């Protein structure tokens, strides 16, 4: 190697994001047919990342009810990226036949975590209201699919949901949110917005409603994450896993 220098020229920021130097590469969303075939970059020419950097994951991506499209979260703002919180939801056909369509263009703040109701009629997602403010409160937004007027389900709730899931009958959304030093699990009535606490103690994560029970992860100062289940009214909590019991007892 006869190179005498190893420098890199940057004409835009980020130069470094958290613990990673930027090298011009992006994380794009590809769709591969389950029966086999070529991977399709559904983001095409978008100069942005999906999942979002540095903490985003699969919760930012979901297929449409007809399986012909995909919804994903990305921050497509060009040179404004370092100081922008304008993450948007995009729709793209899985065959890449059309360029992605921005579904949340009117909101200049954060939009993320798309999740369709089991009947496929409503898209729920989290949204902030204040552009540029990373610590803003998330609201749960309900969007009739494919067309209709958005409704803010939790505008008057002084909590910021972080993860959520639908009930099988589409009547309730179960959401986690920071709550008086804990991270509790709440039940939110989709029609009225009425909120009930299901599990108050511990740090709850990744709720999933199955049948007559809700499965979730729980950790606290006495134990790492274990799986539990509970009835929708908060009764009859059951511990499902004991992965760490022996180590904790030692």
Automatic annotation (TrEMBL):
GO molecular function: serine-type endopeptidase activity
Transmembrane annotation, as ranges: none
Name under which the protein is recorded: Dipeptidylpeptidase IV N-terminal domain-containing protein
Keywords noted in UniProt: Hydrolase, Protease, Serine protease, Signal
Source organism of this protein record: marine sediment metagenome
Pfam family, one: PD40
Signal is among the record's keywords: yes
């Amino acid at each position: 190697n006869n190179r005498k220098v190893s420098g890199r020229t940057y004409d835009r920021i980020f130069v470094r994001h958290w613990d990673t130097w930027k090298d011009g590469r992006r994380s794009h969303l590809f769709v591969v047919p389950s029966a086999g075939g070529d991977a399709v970059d559904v983001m095409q020419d978008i100069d942005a990342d999906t999942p979002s950097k540095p903490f985003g994951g699969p919760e930012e991506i979901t297929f449409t009810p007809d399986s012909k499209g995909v919804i994903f979260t990305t921050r497509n703002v060009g040179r404004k990226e370092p100081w922008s919180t304008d993450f948007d939801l995009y729709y793209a056909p899985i065959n890449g036949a059309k360029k992605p369509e921005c579904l949340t263009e009117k909101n200049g703040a954060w939009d993320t975590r798309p999740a369709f109701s089991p009947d496929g009629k409503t898209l729920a997602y989290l949204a902030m209201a204040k552009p540029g403010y990373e610590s803003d409160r998330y609201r749960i937004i309900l969007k009739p699919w494919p067309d209709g007027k958005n409704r803010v389900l939790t505008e008057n709730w002084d909590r910021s949901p972080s993860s959520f899931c639908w009930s099988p009958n589409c009547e309730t959304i179960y959401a986690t949110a920071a709550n008086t030093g804990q991270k509790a699990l709440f039940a939110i009535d989709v029609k009225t917005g009425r909120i009930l606490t299901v599990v108050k103690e511990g740090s709850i994560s990744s709720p999933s409603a199955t049948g007559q029970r809700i499965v979730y992860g729980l950790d606290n100062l006495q134990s790492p994450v274990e799986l539990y289940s509970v009835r929708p009214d908060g009764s009859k909590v059951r511990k499902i896993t004991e992965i760490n019991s022996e180590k904790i007892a030692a």
